[in-house]
Amino acid sequence: MRPKALISWSSGKDSAFALHEVRQAGELDVVGAVTTVTETFGRVSIHGVRQEILLAQLAAAGLPPRIVPIPYPCPNEIYEARMGEAVAGAVREGITHMIFGDLYLADIRAYREQKLAGTGIKPVFPLWDKPTLPLARAMIESGVQAYLATVDLKKLPAEFAGRKFDAQLLADLPPGIDPCGENGEFHTCVVAGPMFSHPLAVTAGERVERDGYAYCDLVMD
Q1: Angle at CA of residue 70, ends 91 and 145, nearest 5°
Q2: What's the pTM?
Q3: C-alpha to C-alpha distance for 58 and 76, rounded to whole angstroms
Q4: In the predicted model, what is the mean pLDDT of the chain?
Q5: CA-CA distance, 141 to 138, in Å (whole number)?
């Protein structure tokens, strides 16, 4: 019996590729995906991806969804309380690991390790410290297809929201922008890849700007 794991699923390329890497390694049995969804909008928190697309992703990945609803705005204590409930529920089901797609932000990793310490769940970081330009290229070469769902307007022009995450995008990123968007420059929505049984029929809709970010409203065809 392999240890049971959940994946922290953001709807983006990093969590999707982390799932792919873990499945390739074969040491963990990934039995579900945890995603925070902002109740006010019915969208994946931060990424702004519609819940309908999230559920289609998880169906294609063969992962039962574990949606953690949060308000907008969400005070940190509410976020931590609801995530704590999700973790406690997982422990009761015999789940022992949680997978994250973090790449190199040490403070984020330390926060996750601190919050899971003593719970009985061990954090796993399959993409940790991989150089991000080769990693971005490896994702694209593996067949990952994604759209930029959210762009930080302090770091990138609004026109990047809705673009495909591909070789041309990597070439067009301004100097100093991480190729995987690890510093929050952009967030993605995966629509195809080796972790999915089939691609999703998604198109880029209208672009809106709010709270310093540009969001592309991705819609199911």
Answers
A1: 85
A2: 0.96
A3: 26
A4: 97
A5: 5
